[in-house]
Design brief:
The structure holds 2 protein chains of 2 kinds. Chain A is of the alpha/beta class. In chain A, 36% of the residues lie in helices and 17% in strands. In chain A, α8 links the parallel β7 and β8. The termini of chain A are far apart. By secondary structure, chain B is of the alpha/beta class. Chain B folds into 4 domains: 217 residues, Pyruvate-ferredoxin Oxidoreductase, domain 3, CATH 3.40.920; 183 residues, Rossmann fold, CATH 3.40.50.970; 67 residues, no CATH class; 122 residues, Rossmann fold. Chain B has 21 helices and 24 strands. An 8-stranded mixed β-sheet of chain B has the order 6-5-4-1-3-2-16-7, sandwiched between helices. Classes of the chains: A alpha/beta, B alpha/beta. Chains A and B meet through β2, α4, α6 and α12 of A and α1, β7, α9, β9 and β10 of B.
Chain lengths: 303, 646
């Protein structure tokens, strides 16, 4: 693990708080990437704003650290333009489920080959611990003046109803489990959500390591793979059942390869897309720069 | 001249002979074929060899509200509309009630006899405030269409009320539901024939318009033919006298007939755009539709060059961010929007500025604030487009003044974006977006992609350089980092004061470079007298009305020129100040309240443009308005607010 860590470190010092769950995610991510067999230039980590948003600077792959809540649109534009790139989104629960929730839902509808890793710590860490969309109703973390008056959103169920075809939950301090989920999600042929339970030792005094030990369990005897349409319905009902339990399940809930990924949907309307996506097209030809013939391409405009 | 309406009409129209500056209004309820009527007229006039400029006015509504086209045709190039009009064609009573006062004294009104007995004050779709004004205007006229017709005829106008329904039913053998659907063609054919367009050309235009709809085409041709025949044979055996002298089409296939949305789409595709993102908004969305429709790009050997992709985003924030994402992969990427969408895009533009991303935002202004006038014209977002985004960064704001320029600027904007690695705002307006006009395309020949480093070795995305431009590598070519935070050469977050200063200066220093290297024609264009006394400064579609007014101003003895401002940021202060200094009298004309261009010129050049002609009704500034306003300015007024047009 040490060797991998060094090789996939960018050299930038990770400035997270000591004990931050992000360290676990960072380590597992480097491990997963090293096992992927993809050249690091072709891996693009796209992130939002917040503690989690800094992760691309620490990993030695290409990184695009974007705006608060907007990592998904950036990632979608990158992936659609150059499908050869391996695109992974990292963001916090506030980023992806609060300010950026509309994009999260839209991504499920499109189903691009992008894994969204939600660093879920229940708080807005970098602004000193305000309640995030995953903090339970009535809970009061230490920097809140009052108990939280908003209900929590469930990222797995939200992802399921939005059309995501890969859904998993893992835990920042179980590196092996998290790495396996990351590998599975990154290799998945479609849109994925990996929710990572990530203790914030600085601001979240509720979801602590002890809380996670007591309130989670690892999924066993659950087959996440969808094989047909009918199976998909049963799978959804099963996931609702899992998510209705008192304890949070850790593991892979859904792998559905039956739905067309975004690149195939684009190729179904733009017939040259599969062989000539935008990033692979030549727009100029030697010195004769403008190769498009206006009269042939736009005959209806001529009088 | 004897004129009667009804089935015994005789039309003898001599007023327009040889004049060749024809203005038509053809109106009706939205969704009732009125848009097609306008397009048919435009197409036929263009096919007859005329230059055409047509404004389309419509409500934010799909069916029922009043909509019309104001079409102008001439032998010479025109870039504006002009009142009063020569022809008014009405599909419904609201059109008559709304526009009758815009007819010339010797003008002609055409409508179906079905309207004759209708009441002018019972129009449920009419805006209640407009109705109040109408009632006052009708006091001395009467309440029915018949009475209005008589009043117009007493004033010297020709009223041609034709039994279209009977003609269509008898001659084209159609029954009632279908009759309503082809009424537009009947009306337009009459207007065109009256203006001197032969049936042959009308048929040609119908064929072009309904190319892919065989049945619709056949039906409309039979209607046009029947109406035309009935005009020729109208009672008494007298023939319809039409204006001669309309030139026959000479060089077919050399001109394009485009709306601004079309022109920009063509420019973008020719210029190498391969990713367009958008969220639906008027008056920008049609551009994306045109790109989708022409997504197979061909070279002169009919070989496919590839195709762009168009992504409809979930909102404008996503649209700009997706386009930026595409640009990072080396793809020429753009988004297009209007004011409300641009408001949402602002954070993305700031990120692009900080990360030196070549992304193009095509910005069609419409009436604001907020939802404002969603389908109407405005030039009130100039200052916004210059200042959108917190912090300071270099951008280019380039404003086009007409369709030909818009087509070329679409290419130039992508060139500038990549050459200088800045976000570029291509500033347009609803006038350009929706007006349809004939253009002779003469396109920019060059694609400029800017400094590159595809070596993959020791790459630093933001490497400091003497000319402020770091060589670009595309995602996938090298390792690189981007961030909205201040960053070092590698693209990693840095709050080091000296790094901050160097990076800040690198980004801002581009402004000087851009100004130094941009040709004058992209900064500002001077029209008219070189030895001018009065200088009109203007921009966007309003340029057309000002330039079209120059001959008339000259004939009144004014030594007037028009300066069209194009590059709004960075602002070419020295170049513009030089031109301003030669004038004794500065007048700004623009479609907003403040006189935003005048304010900008004052800020950047220190020249106080105190005489301002403004319009914010949502309607275009017209050639005649420019002339009248100029007269008033010369007689001492300083602020003139225009309000012509319906």
């Amino acid at each position: 693990m040490n060797e991998i860590s060094t090789d996939w470190n960018s050299g930038v010092w990770p400035d997270w708080c000591p004990g931050c769950g992000n360290f676990g995610i960072f380590t597992a991510l480097k491990g997963a990437l090293s096992e992927l067999g993809v050249g690091r230039e072709n891996i693009v980590i796209v992130s939002g704003i917040g503690c989690s948003g800094k992760i691309p600077h620490f990993v030695k792959t290409t990184g695009v650290h974007t705006l608060h809540g907007r990592s998904i649109p950036f990632a979608t534009g990158i992936k659609a333009s150059n499908p050869d790139l391996k695109v992974i989104v990292h963001g916090g629960d506030g980023d992806l489920l609060g300010i950026g929730m509309g994009h999260l839902i839209a991504m499920g509808r499109r189903n691009p080959d992008i894994l969204v890793v939600i660093h879920n710590n229940g708080v807005y860490g970098l602004t000193k611990g305000q309640a995030s969309p995953t903090l339970q109703l009535g809970k009061r973390t230490k920097s809140l003046a009052f108990p939280n008056i908003n209900s929590a959103v469930n990222p797995i169920l939200l992802g399921m109803t939005s059309g995501y075809t890969f859904l998993a939950r893992s835990y920042a301090y179980n590196i092996d489990h998290l790495k396996a989920c990351l590998r599975q999600g990154i290799s998945h042929n479609g849109a994925g959500i990996l929710e990572v339970m990530q203790p914030c030792p600085t601001w979240n005094n509720i979801v602590t390591m002890e809380w996670v030990e007591k309130n989670t369990y690892y999924l066993e005897d659950w087959d996440p793979v969808v094989r047909d349409e009918e199976g998909a319905m049963r799978k959804m009902q099963g996931i609702i059942g899992i998510e209705s339990g008192e304890k949070k399940a850790l593991g892979t809930m859904l792998i559905d390869d039956s739905r067309q990924p975004f690149r195939e949907r684009i190729a179904s309307v733009y017939k040259h897309y599969a062989t000539m996506p935008p990033a692979k097209q030549e727009i100029q030809r030697g010195n004769a720069s403008l190769p498009v013939d206006v009269e042939k391409t736009f005959p209806n405009f001529f009088v | 001249m004897p004129h009667r309406y009804g089935s015994t009409v005789v039309f003898e129209h001599g007023g327009l002979v040889g004049k060749m500056d024809l203005n038509f209004i053809v109106g009706g309820p939205q969704g009732g074929g009125i848009e097609t009527a306008g397009l048919l007229a435009v197409r036929a006039l263009a096919a007859q060899g005329l230059e055409v400029f047509a404004d389309r006015e419509y409500h934010s509504n799909i069916k029922g509200k009043h909509s019309y086209s104001h079409i102008r045709a001439s032998e010479k190039r025109i870039r504006s509309i002009k009142y009063p009009v020569d022809f008014l064609g009405a599909l419904d009573v609201e059109t008559l009630a709304t526009h009758y006062h815009e007819l010339k004294r010797e003008g002609m009104l055409v409508h179906g006899t079905g309207l004759s007995r209708k009441q002018l004050t019972k129009i449920p779709s009419m805006d209640i405030h407009r109705m109040e004004r109408l009632k006052a205007d009708l006091e001395n006229i009467g309440d029915t269409v018949e009475e209005l017709d008589e009043w117009l005829e007493r004033g010297g106008m020709t009223v041609l009320a034709l039994p279209f329904a009977e003609i269509i039913s008898d001659e084209a053998e159609q029954s009632p539901p279908m009759i309503e659907r082809v009424m537009n063609t009947a009306l337009t054919t009459t207007l065109l024939r009256a203006a001197g367009i032969p049936l042959k050309t009308v048929v040609e235009a119908i064929e072009a318009l309904f190319k892919e709809k065989e049945e619709v085409k056949t039906l409309n041709i039979s209607v046009a033919t029947a109406v035309s025949k009935s005009l020729d044979e109208t009672a008494g055996g007298k023939r319809l006298k039409i204006a001669p002298n309309i030139p026959q089409p000479a060089e077919k296939g050399k001109r394009m007939l485009v709306a601004g949305n079309d022109a920009v789409a063509v420019g973008k595709l020719v210029g190498g755009l391969r990713l367009q993102t958008y969220y639906p908004i008027t008056p920008a969305a049609d551009e994306s539709f045109v790109i989708e429709q022409h997504s197979v790009l061909l070279d002169s050997d009919d070989k496919t060059l590839g195709s762009p992709i168009v992504i409809q985003a979930e909102d404008e924030i996503s649209a700009i961010c997706m386009a930026i994402g595409g640009a990072l992969t080396g793809v020429r990427s753009a988004t297009c929007t209007s004011g409300p969408g641009f408001s949402l895009m602002v954070e993305g533009i700031g990120w692009a500025g900080n990360n030196e991303v070549p992304v193009v935002i095509t910005y069609y202004q419409r009436g604001g604030p907020s939802t404002g006038l969603p389908t109407r014209h405005s030039q009130s977002d100039l200052l916004f487009s210059l200042n959108a985004g917190h912090g300071e960064f270099s951008r280019i704001v380039l404003a086009s003044g007409d369709h030909e320029e818009a087509m070329n600027d679409a290419i130039k904007c992508m060139n500038y974006a990549e050459k200088y690695q800045v976000p570029v705002i291509h500033l347009l307006d609803k006038g350009i977006a929706n007006c349809v006009t004939t253009v002779r395309p003469s396109l920019v020949k060059e694609i400029v992609r800017g400094k590159r480093d595809a070596s993959g070795q020791d790459y630093r995305r933001f490497a400091l350089a003497d000319d402020q431009i770091s060589p670009r590598a595309y995602l996938g070519e090298s390792l690189m980092w981007y961030t909205g935070d201040e960053h070092d050469e590698a693209g990693h977050i840095s709050e080091d004061p000296q790094t901050r200063r160097m990076m800040y200066e690198k980004r801002m220093g581009k402004r000087e470079k851009i100004l130094k290297e941009t040709p004058d024609e992209d900064k500002a264009v001077l029209f008219g007298e070189q030895d001018y006394e009065d200088l009109i400064i203007t921009w966007g579609i309003t340029t057309g009305a000002a330039v079209d007014a120059i001959p008339e101003l000259a004939s009144k003895g004014y030594r007037a020129a028009v300066l069209q401002l194009r590059m709004m940021d960075p602002f070419p202060s020295d170049h513009v100040a030089g031109i301003l200094s030669k004038a004794e009298n500065l007048i700004s004309i623009e479609a907003n309240y403040l006189g935003q261009l005048a304010e900008l010129v004052k800020w950047k050049c220190g020249a106080d443009v105190r005489k301002r002609v403004l319009k914010y009704t949502g309607r275009l500034i017209t050639q005649d308005e420019v002339v009248h306003a100029f007269d008033r300015i010369k007689s001492g007024e300083t602020r003139i607010v225009l309000s012509g047009g319906e």
